Amino acid sequence: MIAGRVGIVGTGRVARALALGLGVRSSATPMMWGRTPAHLPEGGGVLAVRSLEEVAEQCDVIAIAVSDDALLQVVDAFAGAQFRPGALAFHVSGGSGTAILEPLRIRGVRTAAVHPVMTFTGNADIEVQRMAGACFAITAPDGDTMRQARTIVKALGGIAVEIAEDRRTLYHAALSHAANHLVTLLAGATRALHAAGIEHPESLVAPLVRASLENSIAKGFDALSGPLLRGDVNMVRGHLAALANDCPEVLPAYRAMALSTIDELERRNKAATLSTLRAVVDDVQ
Questions:
Q1: What is the pLDDT of residue 45?
Q2: How far apart are CA 205 and CA 184, in angstroms?
Q3: 122: left (phi > 0), else alpha (psi -120 to 50), else beta?
Q4: CA angle, 279 as apex, 278 and 281 as ends, to 5°?
Q5: How large is the angle between the packed helices 168-195 and 251-268, nearest 10 degrees?
Q6: DSSP state of 30
Q7: DSSP H or E run through 264
Q8: CA geometry: angle at 95 spanning 94 and 98, to 5°?
Q9: Other CB atoms within 10 Å distance of the CB of residue 14
Q10: CA nearest 258: which of 274, 244, 269, 246?
Q11: Nearest alpha-carbon partner for 160 in 143, 137, 133
């Protein structure tokens, strides 16, 4: 259980999931403030408040769950508020550490960054279940605050992973590269399959991608298969020509990923025809 009252700043997907997840594990009904009160969780379970000052004055744990661009605005808006002694304020941004909360720390508030490593779609009930067992990247300036951050993660059923302050942006870039760019990659693949005459490309590609993902997680780059690994120059040349002719909007991403794959193969010395492959990919205009 979390001692005291939890306050949630924000009414978006992450904020609603935190309100539900932390609310049932705290000793008082959580408070919630946001610029869009209509987005408060359906069915109640929170106390809607009119100002950030109320959150500061009455809450022992404050979760700031707003967009990255709005985070500084919220910190500035807390100026002049009276916080409870020993209060903890944390944000859920992946790319920011605790430096952005410095105006609160110098006023005696414990500050931390607690980022859930998962996606949120708006179904708070399901997302509370998903947070149980998910990893949370936590950053804090001292041991006592780090222990408090771990308590928050434990209350949600998650697994705490400590990230250094100066590594937060790199950490978040890695996650974005894996998750966000995967969406773009699959969108391009399904578009090319449409161009190839496949009516329902999702059903065709899903088993292949799931197997590739599982193999990649288990084996890393050793899970690679396909024409680049085999050094099949003519097949790669055919891919590039087909994309250029029938689905040119996908060609830049294909080339970029092919060159990145060749780079990794060169680092591992796993192919004998890399110079030829690179020349073929580079020659595409």
A1: 80
A2: 14
A3: left
A4: 65
A5: 120
A6: P
A7: helix 251-268
A8: 90
A9: 25
A10: 274
A11: 137
User: Whole-angstrom Cα distance, residue 63 to residue 66?
Assistant: 9
Q: What is the CA radius of gyration of the chain?
A: 24
Strand order in the sheet with 135-139: 47-48, 31-33, 6-9, 61-64, 88-91, 110-116, 135-139, 159-162
User: Which two three-digit tokens encode residue 280?
Assistant: 């073929």
Query: What Cα–Cα distance (Å) separates residue 58 from each residue in 23, 24, 30?
Result: 15, 18, 10
> Are 106 and 79 contacting, i.e. CB atoms less than 8 angstroms apart?
no
Burial class of residue 77 in the structure, from the number of CB atoms within 10 Å of its CB (0-12 exposed, 13-18 middle, 19+ buried): middle
Across 65-189, the runs of DSSP E, i.e. the strands, are 88-91, 110-116, 135-139, 159-162
- CA 228 – CA 236 distance, rounded (Å): 7
AA letter at 142: D
- Rounded to whole angstroms, the Cα distance separating 25 from 155 reads 6
Query: How many C-beta neighbours within 10 Å does residue 260 have?
Result: 10
Q: Residue 244: is it exposed, middle or buried by C-beta count within 10 angstroms (0-12/13-18/19+)?
A: middle
Low-confidence residues of the chain: pLDDT under 70: 37-44, 270-273, 284-285
Tokens of 119: 């996606």
Residues listed for the chain: 285
Q: For position 283, what pLDDT does the model report?
A: 83
Alpha-carbon distance of 172 to 28, in angstroms, equals 33
Q: How far apart are CA 72 and CA 88, in angstroms?
A: 17
What per-residue confidence (pLDDT) applies to 79?
81
